[in-house]
Specification:
With 113 residues, the protein is an alpha+beta fold. It has helices at residues 29-38, 56-85, 99-106; strands spanning 3-8, 11-17, 24-28, 42-43, 49-50. It binds zinc ion (2 copies).
């Protein structure tokens, strides 16, 4: 998005152009900085959403967080699967010969349909 800063009546304003419809509009410099900091969305006069792209560092740290959550979830699922393969109930960790029947009767909510 093209930006130009200027001052009017002693106020710092930013002139910008919507990348979608091309309309030119002004917002206060302070508001522009807030949006840039917080990555919040605002709208051009024609209602097109505008947002500052997150910095690479922000993007990477949020991806790393997602990844470690995914790894933790996978580890938990693998542990459950390993228990199930050994005939151990993944929910209450007791051992059963007929794990299928135990799951259907005791943990019907956790059985995938
Ligand atoms: Zn627009
Ligand atoms: Zn059980």
């Amino acid at each position: 998005m093209a930006e130009a800063a200027f001052t009017v009546y002693n106020r710092s304003m930013v002139l910008m152009q919507c990348g979608q419809c091309g309309v030119e509009f002004c917002i206060p410099q302070r508001l522009n900085e807030e949006h840039r900091e917080a990555k919040t969305t605002w709208y051009c006069p024609n209602g097109h959403p505008r947002v500052y792209a997150r910095s690479l560092r922000d993007t990477i740290s949020s991806l790393q967080k997602d990844l470690s959550q995914a790894v933790a979830a996978r580890d938990e699922l693998e542990a459950k699967l390993r228990r199930a393969q050994n005939g151990v109930c993944p929910e209450c960790r007791r051992h059963f010969k007929n794990l299928n029947r135990h799951m259907q009767h005791k943990h019907p909510k956790t059985v995938l349909t």
